[in-house]
Fold GNAT family N-acetyltransferase.
Amino acid sequence: MTGVREATPEDAAEIVRLRRLMFASMNDDDAGGEWERAAEEQARRQLAARPRLLGAFVVDGDPAQGGPPHLAACAVGRVEERLAAPGHPHGRFGFVFTVSTDERYRGRGFARATTEALLDWFAGQGVTRVDLHATPDAEHLYRSMGFAEHSVALSLNVASRAARP
């Protein structure tokens, strides 16, 4: 098994598999579905794009575990460009939306290692703040890395607005 490396477009299917495992563990439900095909195409395209706004870092799985080549863990996030603001002169923010470790590899520090690599990548992209949503099980990891509450996040699903006449 190797160390942390930057993901390539060829890793897209495995990144989506790990993302599915993340959702399944968060919801205690197998979260498979149509979204997986779209997510794989998006990951493949965004990992090949230049300039690259999708950052993804992975750890390869151990071939001795059997089966086809696979990833042990990943951390994935995206650079967002907003309007500049005090403390954020270029308006570049990061959002981490997937940190996942295959059950076979948990407890080995891969979530921390891939997230640290992603944070370093964000810094190299001129990002001044990185946000994420933490599960209760992972909150201690992110706090130990320096994450803290920033503000109360509010969300609204506007999908139904698109259907309005």
